[in-house]
């Protein structure tokens, strides 16, 4: 059983071993989190090469030896040699998180399919059992989201700040926070004005 968590990887050191399509997918995800990425591989894809040229990934062009270990916070093993991936997995440093593309079930972490809509992040994982099914489920969820979900989230963020900063008792605050997530509030074109009036009236009680 795995515990879903959100990790802040900004500035964290990540070593990626392997330069193929699997490595490329993980590198693109790590870039979005502003991780410091070091890649080791004898060959890389054209897409990774572009990232290296842009200075977004440091690259060491060489073969990795089976007796090597790496001191980074996160280690991504994505070579096309399953045996090498397994050996490097067991060479891990203490307290190092490792993702083994050859054996996702036993990896310390998984990269779930992620759906990002503004401030909304939805992840779907099958714990490595079927990444394709996770993607299919994520697509189904996306089709159920409101078309203006990003705008709704901006309103909710603003509204929450207004309510939290107002001189309201805890009961009124909780009541307003509960009301603003209802469809009649989210779909109201005058929701901002109505909320300010509601907050003002509640502050007078």
UniProtKB/TrEMBL annotation:
<keyword id="KW-0560">Oxidoreductase</keyword>
<keyword id="KW-0627">Porphyrin biosynthesis</keyword>
<dbReference type="GO" id="GO:0004325">
    <property type="term" value="F:ferrochelatase activity"/>
</dbReference>
<dbReference type="GO" id="GO:0019354">
    <property type="term" value="P:siroheme biosynthetic process"/>
</dbReference>
<keyword id="KW-0520">NAD</keyword>
<dbReference type="InterPro" id="IPR036291">
    <property type="entry name" value="NAD(P)-bd_dom_sf"/>
</dbReference>
<dbReference type="GO" id="GO:0043115">
    <property type="term" value="F:precorrin-2 dehydrogenase activity"/>
</dbReference>
<feature type="domain" description="Siroheme synthase central">
    <location>
        <begin position="118"/>
        <end position="144"/>
    </location>
</feature>
<dbReference type="InterPro" id="IPR028161">
    <property type="entry name" value="Met8-like"/>
</dbReference>
<dbReference type="InterPro" id="IPR028281">
    <property type="entry name" value="Sirohaem_synthase_central"/>
</dbReference>
<protein>
    <recommendedName>
        <fullName>precorrin-2 dehydrogenase</fullName>
        <ecNumber>1.3.1.76</ecNumber>
    </recommendedName>
</protein>
<comment type="pathway">
    <text>Porphyrin-containing compound metabolism; siroheme biosynthesis; sirohydrochlorin from precorrin-2: step 1/1.</text>
</comment>
<dbReference type="Pfam" id="PF13241">
    <property type="entry name" value="NAD_binding_7"/>
</dbReference>
<dbReference type="Pfam" id="PF14824">
    <property type="entry name" value="Sirohm_synth_M"/>
</dbReference>
<dbReference type="InterPro" id="IPR042518">
    <property type="entry name" value="SirC_C"/>
</dbReference>
<dbReference type="InterPro" id="IPR006367">
    <property type="entry name" value="Sirohaem_synthase_N"/>
</dbReference>
């Amino acid at each position: 059983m795995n515990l879903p968590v959100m990790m802040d990887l900004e500035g964290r050191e990540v070593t990626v071993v392997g330069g193929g399509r699997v490595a490329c997918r993980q590198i693109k995800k790590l870039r979005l989190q502003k991780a410091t990425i070091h890649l080791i591989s004898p060959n890389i894809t054209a897409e990774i090469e572009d990232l290296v040229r842009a200075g977004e990934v440091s690259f060491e062009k060489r073969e990795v030896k089976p007796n090597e270990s790496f001191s980074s916070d996160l280690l991504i093993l994505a070579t096309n040699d399953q045996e090498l991936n397994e050996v490097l997995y067991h060479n891990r440093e203490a307290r190092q998180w490792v993702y083994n593309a050859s054996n996702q079930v036993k990896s310390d972490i998984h990269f779930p399919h992620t759906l990002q809509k503004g401030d909304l992040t939805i992840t779907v994982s099958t714990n490595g059992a079927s990444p394709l099914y996770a993607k299919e489920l994520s697509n189904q969820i996306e089709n159920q989201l409101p078309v203006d979900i990003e705008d709704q989230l901006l309103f909710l963020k603003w509204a929450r700040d207004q309510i939290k900063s107002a001189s309201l008792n805890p009961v009124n605050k909780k009541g307003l926070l509960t009301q603003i997530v209802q469809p009649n509030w989210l779909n109201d074109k005058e929701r901002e004005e109505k909320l300010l009036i509601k907050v003002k009236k509640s502050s007078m009680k």
